[in-house]
Design goal:
alpha+beta; 5-stranded antiparallel beta sheet; 5 strands; globular
Length: 83
């Protein structure tokens, strides 16, 4: 996959969800059948290019995110705008 600064191309993203950790910091998880990315509040990211289903790649990214920051809560559009 051709990444740009660790970011997945839009054409590769099948699942994208936004979360907040216990401090209110935002975490974005993106996944597709060729890999996944976790984007942290500071703009940094962790990622892996791995051929698997989008769901399995998403689950791997989610596990990494919760291992790094603890519990996270999914946020929707309104919560994103408010936070």
């Amino acid at each position: 996959m051709n990444r740009f600064f660790g970011m997945m191309p839009c054409s590769e993203i099948e699942i994208e969800k936004r979360y907040a950790d216990s401090d209110g910091s935002k975490v974005t998880i993106q996944a597709g059948c060729h890999g996944w990315t976790v984007i942290w509040a500071d703009g940094g990211s962790n990622y892996n290019d791995e051929d698997d289903t989008a769901k399995k790649n998403f689950d791997k990214a989610y596990l990494l995110a919760t291992d790094m920051v603890g519990d996270i809560k999914e946020v929707t559009g309104r919560e994103i705008c408010e936070g």
